[in-house]
Amino acid sequence: MRRRGFLKLNSDYAVPLDRNREMLAYYHAKVREQKLDYVIFGHLGDAHVHVNILPNSETQFQAGQDLMLEFARHAVALGGTVSAEHGLGKRKAHLLELQYTPEQIESMKEVKRHLDPAWLLNRGNLFPPPQKSYDTAY
């Protein structure tokens, strides 16, 4: 992938066990429809497989990004999650809003503020640190 100049695109979504076949079929159909190179591997028995899209061009990279977002939405619609084992971090933090309401996300931030008031741990992962406001009046 480095020689091609692109990042691989990968998922960490999971669905309820009874929706596993449906999600797997959805992955295959959508990636094939876009004619993208891909590999699916992972935790089939847990309904948590990893789709890895391997783009060859900027057009394929964009199509792959769009598909990953579509896959996340579909997983949530089936009662699943946008992150199963690897977490969201910086690159996938935007997916949190697909699964949780703004109020639920604010509750998560409140826990962060309580346990890490200086926002030092895992700085910038999942939630950006709050902006400091500086008082310019002396």
Plain-language structure description:
The chain is α+β, with helices and mostly antiparallel strands. Helix content is 38%, strand content 10%. It is built from four helices and three strands. It has a three-stranded antiparallel β-sheet, covered by helices on one side. β2 and β3 form a beta hairpin. α1 (20-33) packs antiparallel against α2 (58-77). The radius of gyration is 18 Å and the shape is globular.
Short description:
The chain is an alpha+beta fold and 138 residues long. It has helices at residues 20-33, 58-77, 96-99, 102-115; strands spanning 9-10, 38-43, 48-53.
Q: Can you lay out the helices and strands and say which pair or pack?
A:
Layout lengths: L8 E2 L9 H14 L4 E6 L4 E6 L4 H20 L18 H4 L2 H14 L23
Antiparallel strand pairs: 1-3, 2-3
Query: What ranges have pLDDT less than 50 throughout 5 or more consecutive residues?
Result: none
Fraction of residues in helix:
25-40%
Q: What's the main sheet like?
A: 3 strands, antiparallel
Secondary structure tally: strands: 3
Strand order of the largest sheet: 1-3-2
Order of helices and strands: EHEEHHH
Gyration radius from CA atoms, angstroms:
18 Å
Question: Beta-sheet strand percentage?
Answer: 5-15%
Distance between the termini: 54 Å
What's the helix count?
A: 4
